[in-house]
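ARCHIVE CARD
CATEGORY: sequence design from structure
SOURCE FIELD: tokenized fold
FIELD CONTENT:
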């Protein structure tokens, strides 16, 4: 009886006994069906199991700080992804910049950009004019030089930035009409129009006055012709007034002149006014210019004898004068003071732009790695020039800054150009450059998404480097770059005034 009672006590379904047997039977059945046994979930918090770690409740202030931090990090990640991945930019500051109007942009050749491009290769360069080989090529890069001592045509074209294969094509095309060995070192003037890739579109060699060898590109090849006519020179008075679009080229054309006259005017005024960024409606320009013809056909413009500018940027007068015994002509104002300055007003040569993009042209200051630089937004291929006479310090590709050129200028000033499309000519360290010489083309090399030229100015003295205001070249006060040369005095001044007196009378306002 005791044993039976004991068995009944041991086998009696106590509290939870039925549940344990049911779980055991279910587990055995599940294993027989090839299933894993069902695990029993236990609510430790209900059963009082203190082994699980407990989190202390967050303070409301700490919760707000944490949420703000997560939100800020997410926002920064999105901004960086947009700038450096989707937008391929280089500065968060550019996010709010207005997008300029497109100027005939084309991405067919990988260039273009919001400002379009300059000096695109034309479909046909030969315009059909019997004398003017450069007719219709004002939107190309124009350069002029001479076959001086020891210079062959090949060497000259290399110095001007023409691509090597193009030089081979030029020599092969011209050689049947001209012995290139006979013109080397003769001092014959050479004028070239090329596209931004370095392709020659038109070329002219002036063997003598009125005797020319010309070549232009048509149907993929260079067509060569020889011209010989008696030269004729004349002096013309031209009066211009800029219209509502402040376009100098249009004002020149409307006055009945050729577009290249705008380049000559802008180049002469480049010390005092940048006619790309500082031209305004109703600005006036009066000038005396030499016009050269071959027979009865106009050929090209010669020297500018006098230019007077009256506009929003100021009032300036330039008169050409060649001192006795000198081979160089210098420009002075009406009182005989030289007008040339140590630095040009802009690192870019004048070039035609759309009036819709004019608001994008003025430079702005950009700070990168603690260095201030002037940012010039320009179409890809816009011509970049040396600010002053100097020596090349550096010309190479340097990572984020892209293709960089550094020039050492007078007074220990170093000019640094960045983000160029390419350099032009022989820019090895130690090579001398002259003021206004074409040294490269605007581009977007390096870490930038838009076409531009970045200019930095610094002074190096006694081993110390001081960053300069990059816009000092565009100032209008006494802090401007210094004037180069001495004023005319005594007999030299008298001779100058006698020479320019009739020019002043010719430039007087009509009816005044």
């Amino acid at each position: 009886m005791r044993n039976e009672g004991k068995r009944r006590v041991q086998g009696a379904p106590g509290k939870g006994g039925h549940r344990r047997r049911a779980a055991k039977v279910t587990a055995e059945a599940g294993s027989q069906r090839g299933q894993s046994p069902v695990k029993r979930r236990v609510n430790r918090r209900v059963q009082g199991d203190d082994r699980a770690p407990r989190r202390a409740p967050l303070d409301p202030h700490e919760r707000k700080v944490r949420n703000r931090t997560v939100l800020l990090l997410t926002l920064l990640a999105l901004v960086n992804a947009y700038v450096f991945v989707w937008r391929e930019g280089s500065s968060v500051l550019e996010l709010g910049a207005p997008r300029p109007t497109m100027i005939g942009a084309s991405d067919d050749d990988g260039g273009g950009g919001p400002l379009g491009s300059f000096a695109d290769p034309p479909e046909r360069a030969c315009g059909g004019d019997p004398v003017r080989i450069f007719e219709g090529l004002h939107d190309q890069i124009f350069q002029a030089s001479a076959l001086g001592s020891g210079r062959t045509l090949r060497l000259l074209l290399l110095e001007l930035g023409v691509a090597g294969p193009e030089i081979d094509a030029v020599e092969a095309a011209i050689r049947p009409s001209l012995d290139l060995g006979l013109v080397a070192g003769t001092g014959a003037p050479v004028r070239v129009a090329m596209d931004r890739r370095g392709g020659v579109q038109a070329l002219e060699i002036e063997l003598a006055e009125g005797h020319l060898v010309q070549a232009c590109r048509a149907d993929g090849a260079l067509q060569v012709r020889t011209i010989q006519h008696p030269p004729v020179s004349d002096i013309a008075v031209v009066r211009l007034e800029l219209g509502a679009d402040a376009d100098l080229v249009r004002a020149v054309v409307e006055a009945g002149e050729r577009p290249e006259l705008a380049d000559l005017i802008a180049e002469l005024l480049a010390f005092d006014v940048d006619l790309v960024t500082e031209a305004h409606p109703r600005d006036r320009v009066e000038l005396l210019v030499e016009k050269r013809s071959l027979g009865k056909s106009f050929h090209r413009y010669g020297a500018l004898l006098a230019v007077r500018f009256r506009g929003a940027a100021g009032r300036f007068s330039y008169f050409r004068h060649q001192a006795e015994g000198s081979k160089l002509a210098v420009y002075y104002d009406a009182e005989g003071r030289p007008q040339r300055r140590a630095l040009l007003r802009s690192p870019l040569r004048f070039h035609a732009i759309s009036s819709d993009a004019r608001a994008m042209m003025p430079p702005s200051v950009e700070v990168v790695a603690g260095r201030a630089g002037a940012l010039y937004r320009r179409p890809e291929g816009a011509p970049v020039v040396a600010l002053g006479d100097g020596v090349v310090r550096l010309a190479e590709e340097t990572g984020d800054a892209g293709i960089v050129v550094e020039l050492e200028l007078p007074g220990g000033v170093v000019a640094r150009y960045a983000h160029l499309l390419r350099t032009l000519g022989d820019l090895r360290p130690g090579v001398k450059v002259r003021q206004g010489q074409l040294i490269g083309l605007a581009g977007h090399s390096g870490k930038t998404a838009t076409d531009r030229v970045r200019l930095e100015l610094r002074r190096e003295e006694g081993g110390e480097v001081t960053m300069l205001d990059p816009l000092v070249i565009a100032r209008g006060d006494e802090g401007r770059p210094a004037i180069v040369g001495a004023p005319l005095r005594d007999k030299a001044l008298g001779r100058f005034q006698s020479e320019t007196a009739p020019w002043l009378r010719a430039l007087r306002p009509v009816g005044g």
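CARD ANNOTATION: The longest strand covers residues 297-311. The chain is about 20% helix and 30% strand.
SHELF: design records, drawer C
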